[in-house]
Design a protein that fits this description.
The protein is α/β, with parallel strands linked by helices. It has helices at 8-23, 49-56, 66-75, 100-113, 142-160, 177-188, 203-216, 218-232, 236-260, 269-272, 276-285, 318-331, 347-359, 397-414, 417-420, 423-443, 455-458, 466-483, 487-493, 501-511, 513-522, 526-546, 555-576; strands spanning 34-36, 44-46, 83-89, 93-98, 126-130, 164-169, 265-266, 289-292, 295-298, 307-310, 337-343, 370-376, 379-380, 451-452. Bound molecules: arginine. Forms part of a macromolecular complex that catalyzes the attachment of specific amino acids to cognate tRNAs during protein synthesis.
Length: 584
């Protein structure tokens, strides 16, 4: 199926482009401006008349005001099956009413050919989404949960839009902390070399102990600092210890990814380390690197502090690694869009090294290749402060997921599902609902705002929650099932009709899907898709309460509308990384 043809705005733009060409003298340059209609006058609007008028004022006697331009735009519209009627409003807005026959036919085509026909098409082949990216030996915390959830959704939207996505886990696996971890390992587990899996259950605790040892004992500290040198110099014993420590963290991270259904490929900081000298040479050859107070830095216009790329001890850092990773992604991996998902606290770091990359000529235009930092706010607790456990520890991700699941299970048991369903169905649904709730609660807010973590709110079956939406979807599936009709058969022979105003409103909202995904994807804002999904369920509810489906003369068409709604809802779930539920 061909992508990129479902976008209504773009289809209208093609029609209005022709009308504008006929209306406006050829030397005046105009691009159709089409927006979704506001108020009750039209489904869409063409807003060119005002701009066009100010450009041709005085040159063309035919036009006395913007309204007359609007009227001419309507008069010059070519024959089109999309448009039912147009009218001029206010100073010259052209309100567009779409043909309901066309709306109905578009829905029918989507059902026959698949939702991919409504997928956007982006003008790039390959992107990198750098997300999740926890640090070795430190627990994954809610900040990494946000990065994981948001990054996964962005990757899914890009993939849906036909882009090959390199999902990169840029784990912090290369820093001075490894010196003390390794020395501590040697002390605590002299037998470490014989173990295929180190018997360390709590790596974070191990980290804390080694840190204490480092701070308390000068001799240990010295050994740890030497260990860093040995490790970075490639000493095989140290490499081996390092890799075993990383493996413990990796296993823990993987558990979370499996539960969340998130795919990621690890290319940690260490991966880029061997390339750093070469990349710094490239930057040096462009005279970008200067010595400053013993370090080597890149000065960035407008910034007080320069970007340090070689520390005064000669070591590399977060910035040199990121510059090198960017170079690698652009040149070796040929990625055209590189997206980094971290908390907003790191904004400055990204701004700085993006700027350095521009100075180096790596990002020559405003289009592609391009880089974006996708920042997000904090997760807050009920007290409005950073989300912590009661003993004010960092909240462990696995505990959160466990609780979401067990609470969802309890709610299902309360609905009598324990007797109705098998244990397996109960658990699967509890997971889908519980994890879905955690993801949706995060994604529905504009990512830049802080949000308050609240189980009761996110697991509420009313309001804008995953639970409500998953149940709404399950109910639609049950309407179709209980009708006793073969929906696949209806898709082939049935016809969609949108005569009732609530049918039409639902149909129009379905048609917005394509442009919404495109907007969410281009602006890197998953909340736009959540809002669309929630509104879809509202339009459906209105339709379902005012239009009898089963047993009505319009049954076939209305079942198809139910199916189209279910298909679009499921696609939204898929893009948001939420597993749909079919029975409730
Ligand atoms: N490991 C970092 C952290 O936990 C995030 C890395 C983000 N990616 C990057 N290329 N800098 O804060």
């Amino acid at each position: 199926a061909e992508r990129g043809n479902g976008n209504v705005k773009r289809q209208l733009a093609e029609v209005f482009e022709r009308s504008l060409r006929a209306t406006v003298p050829s030397e005046v340059d105009v691009e159709p401006i089409i927006t979704v209609g506001t108020g009750n006058f039209g489904d869409y609007q063409c807003n060119n008349a005002m701009g066009v008028f100010s450009k041709i004022k005085g040159k063309n006697a035919e036009f006395k005001n913007p309204r007359s331009v609007g009227e001419a735009i309507i008069k010059n519209l070519p024959e089109s099956e999309l448009v039912e009627s147009c009218s001029v409003a206010g100073p010259g807005f052209v309100n567009i009413v779409l043909s309901k026959t066309w709306l109905a036919k578009s829905i029918q085509n989507m059902l026959a050919e698949g939702i991919e026909t409504w997928a956007p098409k982006l003008p790039i082949k390959r992107a990198v989404v750098d997300f999740s990216s926890p640090n070795i030996a430190k627990e994954m915390h809610v900040g990494h949960l946000r990065s994981t959830i948001i990054g996964d959704t962005l990757a899914r939207m890009l993939e849906f839009s036909g882009v090959e996505v390199l999902r990169r886990n840029h784990v912090g696996d290369w820093g001075t902390q490894f010196g003390m971890l390794i020395e501590f390992l040697f002390e605590q587990f002299p037998q470490w070399e014989n173990e295929t899996e180190l018997p360390i259950k709590d790596l974070e605790g191990f980290y804390k102990q080694s840190k204490k040892r480092f701070d308390d004992d000068a001799e240990f500290k010295q050994r740890a600092q030497k260990a860093v040198v040995s490790l970075q110099g490639g000493d095989s014993k140290y490499r081996e210890a390092w890799s075993k420590i990383c493996e413990i963290s990796r296993r823990e991270f993987q558990k979370v990814y499996v539960r969340l259904g998130v795919q990621l490929e690890e290319k940690g900081e260490s991966f880029y380390n061997p390339y750093i000298p070469k990349v710094l040479d490239i930057l040096r050859s462009k005279n970008l690197i200067e010595p400053s107070e013993g370090a080597q830095v890149i000065f960035i216009e407008g910034k007080q502090i320069p970007l340090i790329v070689v520390k005064s001890d000669g070591g590399f850092n977060y910035a040199s690694t990121d510059l090198t990773a960017l170079w690698y992604r652009l040149n070796e991996e040929k990625a055209e869009w590189i997206i980094y998902v971290t908390d907003v606290g790191q904004r400055e770091h990204f701004e700085m090294f993006f700027h350095a990359a521009k100075l180096a000529g790596w990002l020559p235009s405003d289009k592609y290749p391009k880089v974006n930092h996708v920042g997000f706010g904090l997760v807050l607790g009920e007290d409005g402060k950073r989300f912590r456990t009661r003993s004010s520890e960092v909240v462990r991700l696995v505990d959160l997921l466990d609780e979401a699941k067990s609470r969802s299970k309890d709610a299902l048991i309360e609905r009598g599902k324990a007797t109705e369903w098998s244990e397996e169905q109960l658990l699967q649904t509890a997971e889908a609902v519980g994890y879905g709730a955690v993801k949706y609660a995060d994604l529905k807010n504009n990512r830049l705002t802080n949000y308050t973590f609240n189980f009761d709110q996110m697991l509420n079956d009313k309001g804008n929650t995953a639970v409500y939406l998953l149940y709404a979807h399950a109910r639609i599936c049950s309407i179709i099932r209980k009708s006793g009709k073969d929906i696949e058969e209806l898709k082939k022979i049935g016809e969609v009709v949108l005569d009732h105003s609530d049918e039409r409103a639902l149909g129009l909202h379905l048609l917005h899907f394509s442009e919404i995904v495109e907007e969410a994807c281009s602006n890197l804002l998953p909340n736009v898709l959540c809002e669309y999904l929630y509104n879809l369920s509202e339009f459906f509810t209105k339709f379902y309460s005012n239009c009898q489906v089963v047993g009505s003369p319009e049954e076939t068409s209305r079942l198809l509308l139910c199916e189209a709604t279910a298909v679009v809802m499921r696609t939204c779930f898929k893009l948001l990384g939420i597993t749909p539920v079919y029975q409730i």
